[in-house]
Amino acid sequence: MRMVAETVPEVDPQRPSGARVYDYYLGGTHNFAADRQAAAVALAAMPDLPAVLRMGRAFLRRAVATVAGAGLDQFLDLGAGIPAAGSVPEVARAVRPHSRIVSVDLDPVAVVHTRRAAAGDPGSVALLADLTDADAVLGAPGVRELLDFDRPVCLLAVAVAHFIPDTERLGRALERYREALAPGSYLVMSHACAEGDSPHAKQILRIYNHTTSPMVMRERDELRALFGDWTLLEPGVTAAADWRPTGEDPGVGRSARNEIIAGVAVKP
């Protein structure tokens, strides 16, 4: 892995982290007692939450496999989180063995574990950065050296945009990324959604607002707007479970199918 020089702040194990709570839901071990306590409260409010998150991970795997199958071998993963089974490098390299991946996260725990998992991998960079500062991400040491922006890149913002409450700031950042990428590039996004005024959503929002990662829900039209003028692949913006499903996808109750919405678009 190519290293990026920056100061990694100290981790506060007493305050729950969205990335570590997510890791716990997926069965990971990179979490603290405070994270597990926050997860337990959320699970009491919404017992099928882990199934919903696994559904979102399954969408990520299908989308990355689709993009890699279209010939792309460069991935810029915003809000990459803590490495888990079915990660972007794992799926992409199953199709394109020499794929290059830049992982970006604001959580130092996620960055540290990504670097450990990719130790000795020259095709990976892990960057501690705020994804909404697009120019800083695009110009960071190691990023320009690893990714060729004259060729198509797959930009991923999976299960992360709902942690950015400022829609205007998020929109400006995504617009800057879209401008920087070559025609033929892809944008993969998923987002927490509160369609139908779900009581679960309100409870989950309250819980996450006491972690390092406050959340906001957005509707399908709002997510669709974040793709700009790029061309959405069929079936467009839809429930993550309904985006090109396969027989191997995890099941989730009908009432929770719309908790995560998703889409994939290509730059004309």
TrEMBL record:
<keyword id="KW-0808">Transferase</keyword>
<dbReference type="Pfam" id="PF04672">
    <property type="entry name" value="Methyltransf_19"/>
</dbReference>
<dbReference type="GO" id="GO:0008168">
    <property type="term" value="F:methyltransferase activity"/>
</dbReference>
<dbReference type="InterPro" id="IPR029063">
    <property type="entry name" value="SAM-dependent_MTases_sf"/>
</dbReference>
<keyword id="KW-0489">Methyltransferase</keyword>
<dbReference type="GO" id="GO:0032259">
    <property type="term" value="P:methylation"/>
</dbReference>
<protein>
    <submittedName>
        <fullName>SAM-dependent methyltransferase</fullName>
        <ecNumber>2.1.1.-</ecNumber>
    </submittedName>
</protein>
<dbReference type="InterPro" id="IPR006764">
    <property type="entry name" value="SAM_dep_MeTrfase_SAV2177_type"/>
</dbReference>
